[in-house]
């Protein structure tokens, strides 16, 4: 096309413009229009071409306003050398003092940018040449000092106390280092469209009604970002859902918008009230407050009305093929696809009245999806009462029909979903446009998976049924209720999601990365206490007082301003069995005959005087003497201890599965149930913990000194506390 206007020989600049327009133009219907401007030399620069591409992208409807287009692209605008010289002179005059002070170390890009802002359509190279010329005239040639590199400004490091801030929840935003997630989601970071500019998204289908519908949409939302988290209430949320929650709520929050919690309750056979409650509880536990809690069933009347309209428009029909016949990617075409509209309307009404049995009739939409699936089902018959609508309906809409229309009703701007829904994007756009209703934009991202676990509802149910785990909240699972029970703070899960980031590719992560996030948060949040898992009785024969002493123990030794708790110290204490040996080697630094140790926080050093054993030769008690730390020789180590302790049960958890991918037949030929780790749970029934934790409530968290981070389990009752180990103090190198 260009050669027909310009002849066979094209100059390099024109060729570059032609290449760019062909590569960057998304809608080819405007290609000839733009090539004409390039061939006639009315678009001469890449700057003009970028403006032209943006204009046609922002004006999807025909015909284009030519005069407005030319004005927006600088067609016919002539910038003279004199204008460029004057603009550069004005900018250099503005920064003259800094230029003379910094000379060639001054940021010349600033001069370029300001000059270009004064002359929008001026050629960039011409401006640069003029800037170089005038700077040379002002400063003269470069000296040796000018050629030296400018020293980099030293970065100020945040103080540790500032770096790790306790989490606060404000207006649904989790405010710790998770700000990094909000930074990832803010503004242009993801190249998402702005509200009302849906048509700028690649693949978005524009109809003659699109612009009017978008105008109405903006009038309703005021240009606000709207997202939604749409779980099915037929199971418990897992770690993958945490990413979806953070993405949907986080993106809305980062951009001043709102997020709906919408239950996709279109399958009454599998839905239970406990799932509705647990889902909302977990969303709020992660620190987010929904703008509104809605249900797909709120819109059943409107969805039914739209289904009738779809039939009237010839875009849907009642079909009698069996479920088995339409499964797979190449099912036979429906013999009822072209049945008369009036007939489908009558039959659909019969479906609603219960005149067809389950599986005898469906309503199908007339379209072919990306994956080749033809005519997806919109409605099916189910004689199951709905938990909210009761017996009103015996036909229920499918995900393919419901989801986009609910998004439309709620004026969602960004319908964020995982990559497996990409094949449904065409049906999403098609259905909204077929009904002439507002059409949101569906964006897909990669889902989050963890190694050494399973998250599918079906497989977790099998684990529960076989007794491999107790329930959905068994702390060895990675459901959100299980993670909470194990003691993972919500901030740690949010931080983990932030580190994983939002990517198109699926992310499969090691559990130890989540555990590392937990350690960071718990180190700041969990007060210290002392506990002994395998107690060994120790009697201090020269106890320095006639009655028990009180020892002040800092809740956070690194920051004593955060308070203390009192621990009794009396002649009988208990230490870990592993902190005593009768025979020692050079590497062993704890208690042994002839090798004293310090007692943490007590201010005393103890030395063994007598080892008492049972009939089997096992050590059952030590008799020791104590010396104040300030007069005793400094010991090689300090150990934790308890006195007048509380009896408690401690549950120590390891990975539930032995292999990274328990669902992979090549890795685990016998199936995931054959891969269970026999040592995934060890229960310590006779552990002891200091009395400072006596008033702790369910899910309260502590660092048991030298042992790890622990959380109070809901099984705790008066007189017998139960603790779950969340993570060890340090990562096990064998797990990394």
Automatic annotation (TrEMBL):
Gene Ontology terms, MF aspect: ATP binding; glutamine-tRNA ligase activity
GO biological process terms on file: glutaminyl-tRNA aminoacylation
Keywords: Aminoacyl-tRNA synthetase, ATP-binding, Ligase, Nucleotide-binding, Protein biosynthesis
Domain Glutaminyl-tRNA synthetase class Ib non-specific RNA-binding: 9-124, 127-215
EC top class, as a word: ligase
Domain annotation tRNA synthetases class I (E and Q) anti-codon binding: ranges: 638-713
Enzyme nomenclature, EC number: 6.1.1.18
Reactions this protein catalyses: tRNA(Gln) + L-glutamine + ATP = L-glutaminyl-tRNA(Gln) + AMP + diphosphate
GO cellular component term of the entry, any: cytosol
Residue ranges of domain Glutamyl/glutaminyl-tRNA synthetase class Ib catalytic in the record: 224-523
Domain Glutamyl/glutaminyl-tRNA synthetase class Ib anti-codon binding: 526-626
PANTHER family associated with the record: GLUTAMINE--TRNA LIGASE, GLUTAMINE-TRNA LIGASE
Entry similarity comment: Belongs to the class-I aminoacyl-tRNA synthetase family.
UniProt protein name: glutamine--tRNA ligase
Organism name: Sagittarius serpentarius
């Amino acid at each position: 096309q260009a050669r027909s206007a310009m002849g066979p020989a094209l100059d390099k600049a024109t060729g570059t413009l032609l290449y760019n327009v062909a590569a960057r133009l998304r809608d080819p219907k405007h290609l000839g229009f733009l090539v004409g401007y390039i061939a006639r030399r009315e678009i001469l620069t890449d700057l003009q071409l970028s403006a032209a591409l943006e204009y046609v992208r922002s004006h999807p409807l025909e015909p284009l306003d030519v005069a407005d287009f030319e004005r927006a692209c600088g067609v016919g605008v002539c910038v003279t050398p004199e204008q460029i010289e004057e603009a550069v002179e004005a900018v250099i005059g503005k920064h003259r003092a800094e230029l003379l002070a910094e000379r060639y170390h001054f940021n010349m890009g600033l001069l370029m940018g300001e000059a270009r802002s004064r002359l929008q359509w001026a050629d960039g190279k011409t401006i640069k040449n003029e800037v170089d010329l005038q700077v040379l005239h002002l400063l003269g040639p470069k000296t040796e000092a000018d050629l030296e590199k400018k020293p980099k400004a030293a970065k100020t490091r945040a103080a540790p106390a500032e770096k790790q801030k306790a989490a606060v929840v404000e207006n649904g935003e989790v405010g710790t280092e998770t700000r990094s997630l909000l930074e990832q989601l803010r503004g242009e970071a993801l190249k998402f469209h702005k509200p009302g500019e849906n048509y700028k998204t690649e693949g978005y289908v524009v109809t003659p009604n699109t612009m009017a519908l978008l105008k109405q949409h903006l009038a309703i939302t005021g240009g606000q970002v709207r997202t939604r988290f749409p779980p099915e209430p037929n199971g418990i949320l897992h770690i993958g859902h945490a990413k979806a929650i953070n993405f949907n709520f986080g993106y809305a929050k980062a951009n001043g918008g709102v997020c709906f919690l919408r239950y996709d309750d279109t399958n009454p056979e599998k839905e239970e009230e406990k799932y509705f409650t647990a889902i909302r509880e977990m969303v709020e536990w992660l620190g987010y407050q929904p703008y509104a809690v809605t249900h797909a069933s709120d819109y059943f009347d409107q969805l039914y009305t739209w289904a009738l309209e779809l039939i009237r428009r010839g875009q849907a029909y009642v079909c009698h093929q069996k479920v088995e016949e339409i499964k797979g990617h190449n099912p036979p075409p429906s013999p009822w696809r072209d049945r008369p509209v009036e007939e489908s309307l009558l039959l659909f009404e019969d479906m609603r009245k219960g005149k067809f049995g389950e599986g005898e009739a469906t309503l199908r939409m007339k379209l072919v999806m990306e994956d080749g699936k033809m005519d997806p089902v919109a409605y099916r018959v189910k004689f199951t009462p709905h938990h909210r609508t009761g017996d009103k309906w015996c036909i229920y809409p499918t995900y393919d029909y419901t989801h986009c229309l609910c998004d439309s009703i709620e004026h969602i701007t960004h319908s964020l979903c995982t990559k497996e829904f990409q094949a449904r994007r065409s049906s999403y756009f098609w259905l909204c446009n077929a009904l002439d209703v507002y059409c949101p934009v569906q964006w897909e991202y990669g889902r989050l998976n963890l190694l050494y676990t399973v998250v599918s509802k079906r497989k977790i149910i099998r684990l529960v049924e076989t007794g491999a785990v107790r329930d959905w909240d068994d702390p060895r699972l990675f459901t959100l209720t299980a993670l909470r029970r194990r003691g993972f703070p919500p901030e740690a899960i949010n931080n983990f999601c932030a580190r994983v980031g939002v990517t198109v590719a699926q992310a499969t992560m090691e559990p130890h990365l989540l555990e590392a996030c937990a350690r960071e948060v718990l180190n700041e949040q969990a007060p210290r206490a002392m506990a002994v898992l395998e107690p060994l009785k120790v009697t201090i024969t020269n106890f320095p007082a006639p009655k028990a002493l009180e020892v002040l123990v800092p809740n956070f030794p690194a920051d004593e301003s955060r308070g203390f708790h009192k621990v009794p110290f009396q002649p009988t204490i208990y230490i870990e069995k592993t902190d005593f040996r009768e025979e020692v080697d050079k590497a062993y630094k704890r208690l042994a005959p002839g090798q004293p140790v310090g007692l943490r926080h007590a201010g005393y050093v103890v030395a063994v005087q007598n080892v008492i054993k049972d009939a089997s030769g096992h050590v059952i008690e030590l008799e020791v003497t104590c010396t104040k730390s300030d007069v005793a020789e400094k010991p090689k180590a300090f150990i934790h201890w308890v006195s007048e302790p509380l009896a408690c049960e401690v549950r120590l958890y390891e990975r539930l599965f032995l292999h990274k991918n328990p669902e992979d037949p090549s890795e685990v030929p016998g199936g995931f149930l054959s891969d269970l780790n026999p040592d995934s749970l060890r229960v310590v029934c006779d552990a002891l913990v200091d009395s400072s934790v006596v008033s702790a409530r369910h899910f309260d968290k502590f660092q048991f000194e030298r042992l790890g981070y622990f959380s109070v389990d809901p099984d705790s009752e008066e007189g017998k506390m139960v603790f779950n180990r969340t993570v060890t103090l340090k990562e096990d190198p064998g797990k990394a």
